[in-house]
Write a structure and sequence with these properties.
Elements lengths: L8 H10 L1 E5 L7 H10 L4 E5 L5 H12 L4 E5 L4 H10 L3 E3 L5 H9 L3 E3 L1 E2 L2 H9 L5 E3 L7 H7 L8 E3 L8 H6 L5 E3 L6 H5 L3 H19 L8
Parallel strand pairs: 1-2, 1-9, 2-3, 3-4, 4-5, 6-7, 7-8
Helix pairs in contact: 2-10, 3-4, 4-5
Length: 226
């Protein structure tokens, strides 16, 4: 039972404040910390390691141990309760899934972590909301575009919708202007070509560009990063 645990509102607040979760999928363990440090230097404060990445559990544990509360780490592509519990045991503060699985949601909530299940249709979005989750991953968002987020927020105003899949610098601002709570960004941010060339300075620059796009879309003046 989780009677003495509360939802990790700190991670949720950071995700909302910065507006970007950087998604690591298929990253080699040897490149993990350089990649994480480059993203952190660019202003990223929430990092997701997908559970279909080799060594994901160890990666989450490594990031959680090294950065503690400076960089919030979560697990993505969590498809069942067993994976959810492994991720939480490794130190994941938030959990994302491409689908809606009530067993996964229950496991994550039991341990007081932030649960962000995946949904696409209005019916799926409502099902997530009724399960008491903190935010909802709209996936694959690139297939429907920013206007779809605005349309969903018509009847579902106030929900925290997080577009994932097909989010890039060209549409990031539009998704935020449409009402997205934050964005999940994978290959267009954590670019495999930059990582393979060890161009971590380029990765830092790119992270800053995504965060700037979010700030501009929100109408926030540029300030120096903490």
């Amino acid at each position: 039972m989780a009677d003495n645990r509360t939802t990790n509102n700190s991670a949720l607040s950071v995700i909302g404040d910065t507006g970007v979760i950087a998604i690591l999928r298929g990253t080699d363990f040897d490149e993990l910390m350089d990649t994480a440090e480059a993203l952190y230097a660019g202003g990223i404060r929430a990092l997701e390691v997908t559970f279909n990445t080799a060594g994901a559990k160890d990666m989450i544990q490594q990031i959680a141990s090294h950065y503690r509360d400076r960089l919030h780490v979560g697990a993505g592509t969590v498809l069942n309760r067993a994976c959810a519990l492994q991720a939480i045991g490794a130190g994941a503060e938030f959990v994302l899934a491409p689908n809606t699985d009530l067993d996964v949601i229950a496991a994550v909530k039991e341990y007081g972590r932030v649960m962000i299940p995946g949904a696409l249709t209005p019916t799926e979005v409502l099902r997530c909301h009724d399960a008491g989750v903190e935010a909802i991953k709209v996936f694959p968002a690139g297939s429907v575009g920013p206007k779809y987020i605005r349309d969903l927020l018509g009847p579902y105003n106030g929900l925290r919708l997080l577009p994932v899949g097909g989010v890039d610098l060209r549409n990031a601002g539009a998704f935020i202007k449409a009402g997205a709570f934050a964005l999940g960004v994978g290959g267009s941010l954590v670019r495999s070509d930059l990582v393979s060339k060890k161009d971590f300075r380029g990765l830092t620059t790119l992270a800053g560009e995504f965060l700037q796009a979010v700030r501009e879309a929100r109408g926030v003046e540029t300030t120096a990063k903490a």
